[in-house]
Amino acid sequence: MKLPSVEECNALFNRYHVPKNIFTHCKKVSELAVSIAERLKKRGIGINVELVRIGALMHDWMKAATLEALDRPPFSYKPTQQEIAAWKELRARFKGMHESEITHELLKDKYPELTAFLMHERAIAHDLSIKRSWEEKIVHYADWRAYGDKVIPLNERMDDFFVRYRKKITDLGRWERVKQAERKAEKEIEDVLGIPIAELT
Questions:
Q1: I need a surface site. Which of 11, 138, 164, 196 has the fewest CB within 10 A?
Q2: Could you read off the pLDDT of 32-61 as tens digits, one per residue?
Q3: Residues 112, 25: Cα–Cα separation, whole Å
Q4: Rounded to the nearest 10 degrees, what angle do helices 20-42 and 49-58 cross at?
Q5: What global pTM score does this model have?
Q6: What is the pLDDT of residue 75?
Q7: pLDDT tens, position by position, 148-181
Q8: Phi/psi at 151 (nearest 5 deg)?
C-alpha cells in the first residue's frame, strides 16, 4: 500500500494553506489513533498502524473547503489572508463536495488506496450497517474524542456535537444509533486493552 509520509502530508497542508486549527486537530486525531492502534497491535490485533496514522492525519485535510466560514465558533480561530484566499478558491472549485470527495479528486492518482480508505470511512458514517475494519474504527473513534487539540470524553464530545449541529440533526433516531455505534467501538477497544479508554489521552 502506497501512503504519503507524515512529511509529505505536512507539505500538503502547507501547500493548500489549511487553517492551523484544522491542522492541529488532524495531528491530535492521528496521535490518539496511533496510540490506540499500537496498543491493540501489541494485543494481537492485526492493524496497519501506518494507514491509521496517515488516514487520521488526512481525514479533515479538505474540511475547510466545506465550511461556510473559517472563524466559526467555538474555536474562535482567526485565519490568515493566505488561508482565506485558499479557502475561497477551494470552495469555488469543489462547490458542494464533501471533504473526502475533494481529497479523492486531488490525491486519487498518487494515493488511490488512501483516498479509497477515506471515502469508505465517509460511507460508513452514512450507513451504520457497513462493517468497519479496525483501522476505520480507530480513526473514526479518535476523531470523535479529539476536540481541537485536546482529547475529551466521548459523551462530552457528543453533547457538544449535538448542540453545535442541532439544526442539521433532523433524525434523532439515527443520532442515537450513531452514539451507540461509537460507544460500541469504545467498548471493543477497552475489552481488548483491558483498561479504561480514558487512560489513552
A1: 196
A2: 999 999 999 999 999 999 999 999 999 999
A3: 24
A4: 160
A5: 0.92
A6: 66
A7: 889 999 999 999 888 888 888 888 888 898 899 8
A8: -105, 125
Contact 32, 193 (CB under 8 A): no
* Residue corresponding to grid cell 492502534: 37
d(CA 186, CA 4): 28
**Which one-letter amino acid corresponds to residue 52?**
V
Q: How far is CA 171 from CA 92, 183, 186, in A?
A: 30, 19, 23
Strand partners, 7: none
d(CA 74, CA 59): 20
For 15, 74, 129, the CA distances from 138, given in Å and listed in that order, are 27, 25, 17
Dist CA 78 CA 72 (whole Å): 9
Q: In this structure, are residues 121 and 100 in contact, taking their beta carbons and an 8 Å threshold?
A: yes
The dihedral formed by the CA atoms of 152, 186, 123 and 39, expressed in degrees to the nearest 10: 90
Which grid cell sits at 101?
470527495
Cβ neighbours of residue 59 under 8 Å, at least 6 residues apart?
26, 29, 118, 121, 139, 143
Q: What is the CB neighbour count within 10 angstroms for residue 174?
A: 12
